[in-house]
Specification:
Layout (H helix, E strand, L loop, with lengths): L1 H36 L1 H15 L5 E12 L12 H7 L1 E12 L4 E16 L3 E19 L5 E20 L2 E23 L2 E11 L1 E2 L1 E6 L2 E6 L6 E2 L2 E10 L1
Antiparallel strand pairs: 1-2, 1-12, 2-3, 3-4, 4-5, 5-6, 6-7, 6-9, 7-12, 8-11, 9-10
């Protein structure tokens, strides 16, 4: 997992640096054209720049929802008897929100939140209601197409993940809680509908593992420590449809 995360961070930084260099080149070219061609070109360039500025913003707030799938790991209750149940529990609903301030023309800094939920039963004695939450600071990079209304959005976030499962095992109710460090990466396509609203389709991946849980069952609370071979993988992939407000 770490090598994939490192590769993405390096790629993300290279894209941002490349875009920044392109911006500087465009500014230099625009200045040269104005100096050599006079006021007519300067006026034309001002119009083009005005169109670009029309979609720029200082703040953005996004809401999204869609399908999420936990990456392969049977977790702490691995048992062939529950294989179908555990496979079913990998699919769930994902809901998220984010708030960013654009400190540069294409780069925004802010906060990202995501909620995952999956619930199911197996017979009358087994049930799970799993909730995983992520919250942490994030950075997004926006690369607009030539029409200035369609953009590619790439994002990276690092923060806190919480795990909760309120279920039933062998007919006995239990509560399981844990937490872990988390990372999130995303890539999406956004279409402006107006100066204050956009629609986006985004794919994202959340990474994280937990080795320690607190379990409450039958009035008894205990701490469960998992080995490296039997850790609970909180990683999941999702695809969502969302709205962004400016």
């Amino acid at each position: 997992m770490n090598k994939y995360l490192t590769a993405f961070v390096v790629l993300f930084c290279l894209i941002v640096c490349h875009a920044h260099a392109q911006d500087n080149m465009l500014v230099s070219n625009r200045t040269a054209i104005v100096v050599n061609a006079g006021s007519v070109v300067q006026k034309t360039d001002s119009v083009a720049e005005g169109k670009m500025l029309a979609i720029k913003t200082k703040w953005s707030f996004g809401l999204n929802s869609g399908y999420s799938y936990r990456l392969p790991n049977a977790g702490t209750r691995q048992n062939t008897q529950y294989s179908k149940h555990m496979k079913k529990m990998k699919s769930g609903l994902s809901v998220g929100a984010d708030l960013h301030r654009y400190v540069w023309s294409r780069i925004g800094l802010g906060l990202k939140y995501n909620f995952y939920n999956s619930r199911g039963t197996y017979g009358t004695k087994t049930a799970d209601d799993i909730k995983i939450q992520f919250v942490g600071p994030s950075v997004i990079y926006q690369y607009p197409f030539q029409n200035n209304t369609t953009s590619v959005l790439a994002g990276f976030a690092m923060g806190y993940q919480s795990y909760g499962n309120k279920g039933k095992a062998n007919g006995q109710d239990f509560k399981l809680r844990g937490n872990a460090m988390g990372w999130a990466i995303s890539l999406g396509l956004e279409q402006r509908l107006s100066n204050h609203l956009a629609l986006n389709l985004t794919g994202a991946c959340y990474l994280g593992t937990s080795y320690k849980f607190r379990k409450e069952s039958g009035g008894v609370t205990e701490t469960i420590k998992l080995s490296k071979e039997k850790f609970e993988d909180l990683s999941r992939a999702e695809i969502t449809l969302g709205l962004r407000f400016f």
